[in-house]
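Let us begin with a simple case.
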Amino acid sequence: MLNRLIIICGLLMPQLYAHEDPHDVIHELTHQIKKGENLEDLYMKRALEHRSLGHLKSAKNDLLKVTKLNPKQFYAWLKLAEIEQDVAAALEYIKQADLVVKSPENKALVNISYAEHYYKLGSEKAEMLALKHCNVALSHREDKFNDTELVLFKAHILHCLGQFKERASFLTEASKKNGSIVIRNKQIDGLIDSGSIDEVTPIIKAEIESSRFTSSWKIRLAKCMIASDQDLTKILNEAIVEINQRFNPAKPDTTLLLDRAVANALLGKLDEAKKDLKSAELTSHDQLLIREIRDSLIRGK
């Protein structure tokens, strides 16, 4: 999801060990720690090295040492939340960060972390809290639409909550001010889901005329055609043919798998759709998109 804290921590400290083996770095940091100087800085660095190796217990121990040395080190509290497996415990770490944070940018980071962890709980109530914290994070940004990840995360939560009109409106505003092609395409999906078919159909047809690859746009057009009870078979089969031509089983493309899943679902081939969705779940890191597709298939959208 919005995993930016490791980058921020990296920027916070000198890149003294950028090209060294993490094991060697940990050994050197441990040697320096024994001298008893600059402990906060050294424990933080060692925690990040442990984290890079997946040594979460060791990373947690070092981060806790940082917070004991300096309870106001909010990056350490947020990093503890990131590696904590128990969501309730992670939220307590975030709360500690929230108590000491001051700058608007850092307040935004704290609220993003709140949103991420409430989202993990999965209930509608928790998703509402995640949405609340997304809005707070955006309010702390000078240009709230400049953070593409945060915009997409809020849009995803709105999708999960079934707030399709709000999602379409938010993405339309974001698309005007951000310029990201990803947000622009999400805006079009949002308009389809909200029922703004007349508005979006000409845009999709123009994309089909001008694009080299048209399968995703033909699937979008098919969704628009549902409202007027048109036959979807021809356009969806054309999309599937293109997908099959582009698809490489040795290196499966998640976007193509998900597009084919949607096309087959619209054709009523639910077993084929479930097969592609399952394959996408195994190969993709974008679990937010997969959930949106799964939820859409369940809702019949």
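The second case is a distinct protein. As before, the sequence precedes its structure tokens.
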Amino acid sequence: MSFQQDKFQPKKLEQKIDRLLANALLILRYFFIALMIVYTAICVIIFAVKLGGLAVNRSDLDFKLVDTLLTDGLFVLIILAIVKSLFLKNSLDYAVTLLETGFVVLIRKMILLQTEPNEWLILLVLGITSAVFFMLIILIHYLRRQWQIENEAKAKAVSPSIMNE
């Protein structure tokens, strides 16, 4: 009886299941990335066709046409940001990409929102929120640049001392 208990090793079974699930998740991730890349290509082609058609016709730009082009362009930007986030490994880059995506989504929502006098508060809240997102994005890019300069200065300070030894 003890021989059968020794033969059954739950740790190895658990490790095999973990590896199997990790591989399945990785395959699904790559499949999703491939689908999103194809979807992005389709969105860009459709947007390019709309812009090309507008350039060929040289028609007057009315508000509805500009609104459609702007929202389509922002939609393409959102899809591009989502696809970009699928390739990021650094959590700070991922957070900045999510902030940028949120900013574009808010701007798109403000464009699509029908402006009626009784909805001024929604526009104000969306405007303030998008301004805060924009300031956070600028601040993070500024801080990242400062950190990069500090790291380069530290690397230069360390390298001459290593050469002297």
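The mean pLDDT is 82. The chain is about 90% helix and 0% strand.
Keep these points in mind for the review questions at the end of the chapter.
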